[in-house]
Amino acid sequence: xxxxxxxxxxxxxxxxxxxxxxxxxxxxxxxxxxxxxxxxxxxxxxxxxxxxxxxxxxxxxxxxxxxxxxxxxx
Length: 74
Description:
Layout: E1 2-7, E2 13-17, H1 22-35, E3 39-43, E4 49-53, E5 57-62
């Protein structure tokens, strides 16, 4: 799952691959926003932990779960 998080007032974004499903990521974000949490925690495929402050969210894009093809397509 490809996850992109846009940061408010920053030209950069956080971009990483995660083994979490789209529903799991959506639940983590929705719960944090509803409860008024100050940050969320997400793990990438390599076990790296991302702690992102909720107030800095500009957008969160959760990509498809399909695998990428390698090579040429005819």
